Amino acid sequence: MEKPYWQPYWWRLLFRADGEPGWTVMGPGEFSQVPNNALKDASLELWANALLEDSPDELDDLRGDLLLECYTEPAPADGTPPVYSRQVRLPGYALPPYPKRRHV
């Protein structure tokens, strides 16, 4: 039996706020399938980079790290390494200086 010309992948997005020790899953479910149409003309890496490219602007209210992990199965066992992962920094927005703040 011939394998399809593309490999299905599943992904999840994790967030770790500054000062927090662990990661939190973002989104409605733990894992989502990478859209088949996205992989028809591009590699997994290109799809992931495109997904993360606008993250700092779209998630400008968050400050911390965003981690995208991709797997070849929809529910990988604990400890299964991702086939692709990429971490980006979310700088958050800078708050304007508080006018009545005193430095002590």
Give the SSE map.
Elements: E1 10-17, E2 24-26, E3 32-33, H1 36-40, H2 44-53, H3 55-58, E4 63-71, E5 84-91
Antiparallel strand pairs: 1-2, 1-3, 1-4, 4-5
Average predicted confidence as pLDDT: 83
Specify the helix fraction band.
10-25%
| Secondary structure category | alpha+beta
Q: What is the radius of gyration computed over CA atoms, rounded to a whole number of angstroms?
A: 18 Å
Largest sheet: 5 strands, antiparallel
- Please state the oligomeric state of the protein chains shown: single chain
Strand content: 25-35%
Q: How would you characterize the overall build of this protein?
A:
The radius of gyration is 18 Å and the shape is globular. 9% of the residues are buried. It is α+β, with helices and mostly antiparallel strands and 104 residues long. The C terminus is likely disordered. It contains 3 helices and 5 strands; from the N terminus they run βββαααββ. Strands 1, 2, 3, 4 and 5 form a 5-stranded antiparallel sheet that branches.
In short:
The chain contains three helices and five strands; from the N terminus they run βββαααββ. It is an alpha+beta fold. Strands 1, 2, 3, 4 and 5 form a five-stranded antiparallel sheet that branches.
For the structure shown, list the relevant keywords.
104 residues; 5-stranded antiparallel sheet; 3 helices; disordered C terminus
